[in-house]
Amino acid sequence: MNNCNLIKKNWNGKNLITVIDQQTDSHILIAIHTTQNGRSAGGLRMKRYDSREAALSDVLNLSAAMTQKFAIANMKWGGAKSVIYLTRDLDENERKQLLIRFGLILKNLQGRYYVGPDVGTSSEDMNIIYETGKPYVFSRTIEAGGAGSSSIPTAYGVFAGIKTTCKFIFGTDQLKGRSILIQGLGSVGQCLQNLLEQENAIIYYTETNQEIIDQVSSKGINAHFIHPEKIYDREYDIFSPCAHGGILNKNSIQQLKCKGIVGAANNQLHIEEDADFLKLRGILYAPDYVVNLGGAMGITSIEAEGFTEIEIIEKIQSTIMETLEEVYITANADDTNTVKAALKIAQKRLKYTIDF
Parallel, antiparallel, or unpaired: how do β-strands 202-206 and 113-117 relate? Predict the structure, then answer.
């Protein structure tokens, strides 16, 4: 059995669609983990990977996380995800035509899967996909009739998670004077930084994109830069991973000097057992799919259910605060890690209409 077949064998999802785009040699992977009322939703990730196996593992794991995310938020959607694995760099026209062809595949799924942006894609990309994939596209630009970027609702959700976690650690959700390290100051990280600044938190950030670092410096943003290789040298109250996943492993966890972890990145744990190591070290971990559900919840609620932005931000924050509090209480009561506690809650909330 080759590696790809082994990866698929360990996945308990519903459908996996794989297409090799002949014009660009890119691999299009769509993983539908569950459906509810015949439909599922999840973002499109578009990037270079080390191998097809890595891309396949990513899309399958992310699709399962989407099922848990929608379930724990009591949302009537099944979980799915898509990945375009780029085997080479594409010029602007090649990229656009690839997205148009992705839209045709999406259209052929006839509503079983709705797509939105993820790592490597944007609301502008959703505008392109919509040309051939409509109406099964979320998060187009506001000018094109969509709800725009999911960064703002995602950041508000992480912010709510930080406040809830601080309440459990310190007995108060007040963030004044709390030291918080944001790993990755992209669109979500920058919005989160603004929210934390309003609370008078002490903000640190680490970033590998020099252009972003220069922008932050030129704008005089109230955040202190920490070199990526130096993030373990300083103590923080909260570590907030807002870049790529897989950054919490036995080695990095051993070096961390923080009391809690609350971030927007997907699949932060390298392996599931790392949640036990965090518990052993006394670091309170907010499971990523609980904390970062604001983006999926916000965009689908605005575009599919007619919520206003103000209404959905309030709903996101209350949902995450209440759910995360339940996760922490359950973990304490069961003497287990927070990931197992969150999974227990998600399983209870799965609707009987979900078809695995």
Answer: unpaired
